[in-house]
């Protein structure tokens, strides 16, 4: 069969889920989720508490084993592989608790992330090539920390710490980045800056972002996928989702999106 011209092809798709499900002793927290996220797309995952958003991220990143379905990254099947193998396939995940080296400078943290060598000590002794240095400076700029390269990471603000971790993911060559509530605990100013940084990553990175703050979602999202009771309830552009009657009923209650 010839595919319609606008149908997503394997080459366009960075992350593809096909009937993904997990059964926790009879409870299906994720229940047959299929979705395709294009290269360079930013997709927001929306859903009420317990809808299955974090579990879906866990299934993609290999933290939890699925009981049904498939995960493909850049066309390569990674279903139920070990976390480090899925990371090697290009999936990077940022948790709310950052994993930075607080005693090292911002720049050193990025150098450690950039090096493929295992072990911090080996990485500290590593001399980066010219191309790598250029790339590191670009990332420092992108994450808004160009003036804080020599600052000890332990002295960064909450927001700056989150941005540093994003930079580390970028330098680990994570082409598909999973973010779970990236603005949690941030000030309004930090949230706005996070939106700017995330918007800069679009095109070069594929992002799947779980977020509840609708003002932030409007700033970053192109398309939204809504989960409800482990299933996809709706998918589409922001305005479509905000006016979707079933989404309003299931997730937003009588007040609508605020
Ligand atoms: N290991 C597990 N065993 C049993 N049930 C689990 C397990 N992990 C998650 N669940 C359940 O699966 C459901 C989905 O949880 P999940 O954390 O994915 O939801 P969520 O959409 O991320 O919610 P929130 O917005 O509150 O973080 C919840 O009812 C949760 O209690």
TrEMBL record:
Domain ABC transporter stretches: 15-254
Q: Which residues cross the membrane?
A: none
Any one GO molecular function term: ATP binding
Q: Which PROSITE patterns does the record cross-reference, listed alphabetically?
A: ABC_TRANSPORTER_2
The record's keywords, sorted A to Z, are: ATP-binding, Nucleotide-binding, Transport
PANTHER family listed in its UniProt record: CONSERVED COMPONENT OF ABC TRANSPORTER FOR NATURAL AMINO ACIDS-RELATED, HIGH-AFFINITY BRANCHED-CHAIN AMINO ACID TRANSPORT ATP-BINDING PROTEIN
Task: Write the protein's name.
Answer: Urea ABC transporter ATP-binding protein UrtD
Query: Could you tell me which species this protein originates from?
Result: Rhodobacter lacus
